[in-house]
């Protein structure tokens, strides 16, 4: 019973870590629709949260297991939120193959087609507030893969981690209680046969 209680305490202890700022979902099935974006289908085969999207090199060593590399085609959808106090802001999108930048659901910049890494610069006026952004990127059939987006003068809002639903907590507590009871019964049965 004590072991189950200790396990529960470790499992429920708060974890201290820096909050990630961006979520990236990777897809194997996609189609570029010029002037519209990258249409993905099916479920993401890999998802990660990262602290920076200023330059992601898919050829680099040390990438997390599951992240695609430049050897084949894939799509990546990068999402995040930033906050501005107003005024005119500059932002840049660079990619080796196609990338589309959306702010609050509206397409504001694109670097379409299959090509070597190139960067496009944009300027836009913003009212004070939070803005959701989305970058739709795809890597063609070969030869290098990278994407990056930078915003000047904005503050990024951390990704909010998921909170387990009450039913998840209930199932977990029932499981711990079951482990405790099984340990109690086993100890009691061993004592009875001795």
Rg is 23 Å
Can you count the beta strands? 13
Largest sheet: 7 strands, antiparallel
CATH class of the largest domain: Mainly Beta
- How far is the first residue's CA from the last residue's CA? 21 Å
Low-confidence stretches: 1-17
What fraction of residues sit in β-strands?
35-45%
What letter string, H or E per element, gives the SSE order?
Answer: HEEEEEEEEEEEEEH
Q: Which fold does the CATH topology of the largest domain refer to?
A: Jelly Rolls
Q: Output the structural class.
A: alpha+beta
Helix content: 10-25%
Q: Mean pLDDT, rounded to whole units?
A: 79
- The tally of domains stands at 2
Q: Per CATH, which architecture of the largest domain?
A: Sandwich
Number of helices: 2
Shape verdict: elongated
Q: CATH superfamily name of the largest domain?
A: Galactose-binding domain-like
Describe it.
The protein has two domains: 22-157, Jelly Rolls, CATH 2.60.120.260; 163-193. It contains two helices and 13 strands. It has helices at residues 2-12, 166-193; strands at residues 22-27, 29-33, 37-41, 46-50, 56-57, 74-84, 87-96, 99-103, 106-111, 118-126, 129-139, 146-151, 155-157. β2 (29-33) and β3 (37-41) form a beta hairpin. α1 packs antiparallel against α2.
